[in-house]
Structures are given as C-alpha cells and as structure tokens.
Amino acid sequence: MDTASETAQVRVEGVWKVFGRKPGEAREMAEAGATREEIQTATGSVVAVRDVTFHVDAGETFVVMGLSGSGKSTLIRCVSHLVAPTEGRVELCGTELTRADHATLRNLRRQKMAMVFQHFGLFPHRKVVDNVAYGLEVQGMDRQDRQDRARELLDTVGLEGWGDHYPQQLSGGMQQRVGLARALAVDPEVLFFDEPFSALDPLIRRDMQDELIDLQMKLQRTLVFITHDFAEALKLADRIAIMNDGAFVQVGTPVEILTSPADDYVRAFTQDAPVAKVLQACSLMRPLDGTDIDPGWPQVSSTTPLETALPHLLGSTSPVVVCDEDSTPVGLLHGDDVAGVISENRP
Amino acid sequence: MTVVEEARRTANGLRTASDSRLARFILAIGTIVVLILVFRLSTNFGVFPESWDVGLADPIDRARRWLISNQTSHWLYTVFLNPITDAIDWGIRRLESILKWFPWYSYPSITGVGLWWTRGRVAGVLGLASVSLIGIIDLWEESFATLALMGVSVLISMIIGIPLGIAAWRSDAVAKVVRPTLDAMQTMPGFVYLIPFVLLFGVGRVPALISTVIFALAPVVRLTEVGLRTVPQVTVEASEMFGATERQTLRLVRLPQARPAIFAGMNQTTMLAMSMVVIAAFIGAGGLGQVVLRAMQSIEVGKASEAGIAIVIMAIILDRFSTGIATADPGHDALALRWLAVAVTVVAVVGGLLGHNEFPESLNWQFAPYVDDATDWARDNLYDIGGSGIGTGPFSDFVTLRFVTPLRELLSSDIPWPAMIGIGVVLGLWARGIRLAVGIGAALFAIGFLGMWALSMDTLAQTIVAVAITLIIGVPVGIMTSHNDLLRTALKPVLDFFQTIPSFVLLVPVITLFHVGRIPGIIASVIYTLPAAVHYTDLGLRRVPAEVHEAAESFGATRSQRLRRVELPLAAPELMVAVNQVIMLILAMVVIAGLVGGGGLGLEAVRGLRRSDAVGRGFEAGIAIVLLASILDRLTRAIADRLRPPAAV
User: Fold this and answer.
1) Its pTM surpasses 0.80
2) Is A10 helix (H, G, I), strand (E, B) or coil?
C-alpha cells in the first residue's frame, strides 16, 4: 500500500485478527473475498482485522477512520498489543512486539507508548493526581517525584487545582484531559488514541481537538488516532486510513482522500465533508513555473482555507497568488481547480 | 402454595408448549395417587422398618471415644489440630483482653461518633444510647466474649475468603469447585456444622468459631469474585498499557475497585456470623449466646430478652458500620468529625491507661423483672382469655391438633414410606429428570437407613405448615407492596429489622406467648422468614416490565385480571425462588426450634451436642437435616427453572 519509510516508528505488516475457533478457515474465506457475515455464518469466527499494513513516521499523526464494527478498535489493540494479532508483524520503535516476551513488552509500554481511551478508563478509586501518576508509580518512581510530575502535566492540560478531586467529580471533557495528562506523564514516543473524544459534547470535542493540535505542535509525538468522525480525521490527520469490514480501503493525506476517493465507500464520506473548509490553498495550488505575477492579483497565505479564497476567485477570472509565511509567492490557485474539487464533492 | 399453583397453571395456559407440560403434571399426580393407594392396601408398610437402621451412631460414638482418649497423644492432635486450636484460642483471648483494656465509655462514644459520621446525627445518638444499654443491663463482660469471637471469626473469614475469591476469579477450574460448595454451605442450617467439629475438637470456643467461619464464609468469597469480575475492562487495559505487571494491576486497579463489593461481602459475613452467636453457644462459645441459651432452657424470659436485645444491638450496629464502610464515598470528608474521632481516640487511650475499663455498677438497671411480670401476665391472661377458649393457648392447640399433628401422622405413617419415596422420585422426575429423581430417592432411603425417618417427617411436617403460613401472609403482602410504593417504604425498616436480628432471638418473645412446644418454633420461623417472602414476591412482580402492564391495561384488563393473567405468571419463576428461600430459612429455623420443644431432628442433634453418649445419634440427625435440606432445595430450584419462559434464541 505504501512503502515503509526509514523513519517509521510504528510498522504494521499483514496483521490479521480473527476471533473464534477457526481462524485458519476464516482467513481463507476472507482472502477469497467473503464478507464478515458470510464468514461468521460459515465458521462462527469473526474476522475483525484483515491483512492491514501501514507505517507511521516519527512526529506524524495517523488517523484510522471507520464506522463502528469496522475493526478499528481491534486494530489499535493489535498495534498496542493489548490484543495479540492472529497473524502479522507489529514493530514499535524498532522492537518487534509480535515476538517480544512479557518483560520486553512491559518495558516498552512503560517507556515508549501510552493510550487514551474512549471512555477515559480513569481509575475511580484514585484522585486525579494519582490517576495521572499511575504510569510513573508502576515504573517505581517515588511518591513525591511522581506527584510533582503529575501536577505539572495537569497544568499543561489546563487542570491546575483539580488534582485532589476524584475523576467522577469532573465533567466529561475534564476527565478526558486527565486521560491525556496520564498518557503524557510517562513521556511516550507513541500515543494511541482510541476514539478519545467521541463520548464528549460537540463543542467540547472541538475544543479538545484544537488543544490536541496545539499540544502536538509543541510535543511532536507519533500519534495513532482512531475515530468514526470523518471531519475529525480531516482536521487532525497528516494521513488518514479509511477502514471498512476489517481492511484498509484507502490510505492518504486528507487532500488525496478528498480529491481522489478510492471507491464509492470513501466517496460516501467525502460527499458530506466540508471540503472548502478543510482544504487549504496550498493543497490545490499549481506551481509558479515562472509565471509572471500580476501585482493586481489577490494574495492569500498557503494555510488559508479554500472557503476564504473563494470570494477572490469568484470575483474575477484571474488566479489567486499563494504565499508562504514570508509572503513569498509559492504557487497559484486557479478557479477551475477549485470548482473541480467542489463539484467532485457534490455530484 | 395456592398462589404459586395458580400462577403455574396460568403460566402454563399462556404458553404454546403447555399441553405436554400439563400432561406430564397430570401423569405425575396420577402416579402419586396410585403409589399411595397401592402401599396403603398392603398393611406391611408404615414407618420405615427399624431393622433397616444401618447403625451409623455406634461407630461414630466409638470414634468419639477414641478421639477423646487420644487427644493428648496422637500425632493428628499434637502436630496438627492442637496447634490450630491453641492459636485460635490465643487470638480470641488476646482480642478480648485488648477490647477490655479500653475504658468502658469509649465504646458508646466510638459508636456514636462513627454512626453520626456515616449515617447522621439521629443514628449517632441512638448508637450511643443502645451501646450504653448493653452495659446498663449488666451484659458488658459477655458482650466482649461475643465481640471477640465475632471479630476473630470475621477476620479468619476474610483471610480465607478473599484469597479464595481471587483464586475463583482467576481460575475457572477453581470457580467450578468453589461455587457449588459455597452454595451447599449456605443452604445448610448453620446448626449442622457444629456436629462434626464437636466430634473433632470437643466442646469449646474453637469448634464454635470454626463452625461460625464455615457458615459465614460464603458471601465474602462470592462477592470478592463478583467484585473482581465487574471491574471495568477499560481500566484494566489502561493499567496494562502503562506496563503494569499482573500483580500491580491486581493490587492497584482491580482490588481497590472491587473493594465496595468485598466490604459488602464482609457485611453479609458479619451478619451470618452474628446469626450463629446463640447456636454456637451450644458447643461452648460462651458470651451473650450462652446467656440466651441458659435463660431459655430455664424459661427465664426476662433474662433471655435482655441478652437477646444485646445481640440485636450488636448485630445492628455491626451492620450499620460495615455497610457504612462499604458504601462510603471516597470523596466524603468532614473535618469536624475527624477531630472528634481524634478526640475520642485520645480519651480512649488515656482512659485505658487509667484503668476505667469496668462498666460502673452504679449505672446498672435490669428490665428483666418487668419482662418476667409481663410474661406472667401474658401467660395468665392471654393464654386463655377469661377461660373463653380464645387466646394463644387454644390457638396453639388448634394449629397443633388440626394441622401439625395430622400432617406429621400423614407423612410418617399414614402415607407408607415406600409411597413417600415414590412421591419424591415422581416430583424429581417431573421437575427436572432422572438424575434428580434418583438423587431424591437415594437421599430419602438414606434418611430411612439412618433411622431418622419418623423424626425427619416430623421436621418436614413443621416445615410445611410454617411455609404455608408464611406464603399465605407473605405473598399477598408482597403483591400489595409491589403495587404501592408508600406501603413498601413504610414496611422496609420493619422487614430489615426482622432480617437483621439473629433468628434465635425471635424465639424469646414467641415463647412468652405460646409456651414451649412446636407452635412457638413454627411462629418464630414464620416471623423470621416473612421478610424474605415479601421481598422476593415484591421483587418478582416489579421485574414485570412496565410495557407489559400497559399492554394488559390497553386490552381493558381489570386489576385482578392483570394480576392473575399477566403478572403472576410472568413472576412465577421469581416466586418459586421466593418459595425456595422461604423453605430453606424455615427449615433452618425449625431445626433450631427443636430446642424449645419443637422436637424432630433439631432436638436429636442438640442432644448429640450436649451429651457425649448421644454424639452418634446427633451426627445421624445432622446428616438427615443435610439430606432433607438438599432435597427441598434442589426440588424447589428445579421447579423454578421449569416455570421460566423459554429463553430467546
């Protein structure tokens, strides 16, 4: 599907997960193209993940988008090895998890990875600060040090002063901040997010997404993010994988997915996506190629959403100049291209 | 019984598969009638032949004599049993002396502060007053003996029970052994545990404690397992994701989250242990139980009431405390009360150092004489009011002569013993199948071979009468409370109270009114069991979904139609569970009532505990109780299953 890059921090190759008694038979049927229902009726086994391969580079945000039952939750558990894959290889920070013994896996979890859960997974019997300090406690850090570090992280996620409450005394959004702080406390290289915001109200969800983007700008970790919300995927992702019936349907940048959906299944999502909001000027611009720039042409920055550039394009037939942060022109945005994408989007 | 019968019939009428069921039922009844007639016609059959008694009593008596003479020399004792006995005995004495070291006033105040903290001011004041009352009626010393025994029993139950619960949770193989064992242990009347331990350890606190632990162990094991099973998976995953070892996850995540359940288990265990206080006194537990027992034997109702009330106070306070701990909110905090607790602790330690440990005699005041006066008055005036033939005495005679005695005659001699066994087999066959039928048949034969046939039928007759009375009163009340929240709220504290107090204590007031005999036992069992009957009926009817009510109403059903045609049939399996619970509780109680003139198996078992030459017979009676309990338990459960609507596919 894509070539494994040198800097990949997470590598997943040919991973299968079959629940049930007859994994071999189920797998053969799956390879012959049978659907999940057919396999389940025939073998009683459920193929949750079928032959998934991908990699995630250091500092990249990789989002797996799929509807409920698509296998995305099982996939993230296979990658973090909370569930052992039936077949395939998972490599994390250079260590092959699928072959690691308990101690190696445990050490890797203590030092390299962390996870944020859909329903927060907070410990109701521990104060917020002790929740955040949990990973450090497990590592054997002494009480004072881990509490100091935990309070530091609570400040980072905007929960200063809430450390001595119990999680259930906090609102949903605040609870997930605790979940995030708890994951960040162990300073992991790879962070797994299992639909972290889907249990939150829409407005709080948007705030949390914005904050995650800000945090990621500062921290530059490797994120594997699961969601059923296509808009959330577009907003957060460097690359998106669309998952259906246990397999990846398409992997690509948000622009690639929006501009050239692989099939009708993907198109069903892109149709409703707010393209003009999501796509930025830089993603549709054509290279300058020595074109003379008319000083009268309107200018926009490269991160401007198409929506904002649209009035300029509608007002005249001339292109819009796209500039980088130093206001140096880097490309031209043509009305035809924009119209093309939007019409592709609304057949 | 009639209501359940009705429910079953209507339930059958509702279902499509009812024809074959009805046919089986009629066949079963028919077979029973034929069996009775056949054996009635031949005069050879009546009571189970005495010559068939296998005479288990003699070898047991011999074993007992051997054990007594070898207690100091044999390795089984010197290496194994005596050290256990000594350690437990040391523990109880030690705890008792520690408890007694503190000044007397620390107990009322600790109770007061503790209950105020967990339950509010009124509970605090009541707690303070009721603990003081124990001292005032001069039962302070005895209370400490009981409290120490309870403390060590509960402690040992926790030490054994929590790891066992963890093991059962971790391994299905362990769970498969532990669960049915616990079920069986809880089914048996606590009484029967005394017999083997007396055989092994003789009379004293240690066998009393071991019996108590065995009887009370089940809830803590069960609730530890349940608590661990219900820990949310996501928190376990979260712990694993941080690289916690399995041990760390258990200690830091699973057990703390299971703690409320474990405490609930501890609460139930404490209550079961409290219900053994008087029973354990039979084999030398001492303390309050012994006071009750002695007073009952010499019909000193006043004294028995005082000790009974002390036990009830202790039970209720332990219950409130342990539920308070179990349901405590981790965020709960009250600074003022915390300081008060510190102050009480300081006072307790200082007072202890000063030696204020005796409850001051100047505060003593006995209410026993008043109770005795009232008893005399009741005896003279209520037993047969004005010679009119109305009163508790004639009532007692009426129930005895019209119901208990005829039923006992019917079961033990009028229905020939082979027919009784046949009835058991047919019922087993109808309710579940061949395995249950064979089991019941074998158990009934065993009762006969033990030479316990007549006594068992006596106990069975008392049980049946008590169950019938309980259901006749309890089921309608349950139906009423299920339709009326106000009534339910009003009745709840009353029912709670009767379930919290140890069963034996109930005998005290009943004896006041009805003298000794079979009737006080039956009435005490009914009072003891009514709350369970009301509760389960209410629960069963409340489980009927609201939609079903509405559907019935939309067809224009009257209230009684709705009840008969819809609610009772749907609740039938729950009601049968109620019947099961009622039967088991009553059987346990009827056995206890043997001591106050109820006769039957209970009396035989008690004799075995009291007189060393009757241990063998007592043991046989114990086995017969176990067999009878098992038969009734399995049979009623099988019938409950039979009544369940087919599960969705």
Assistant:
1) no
2) strand
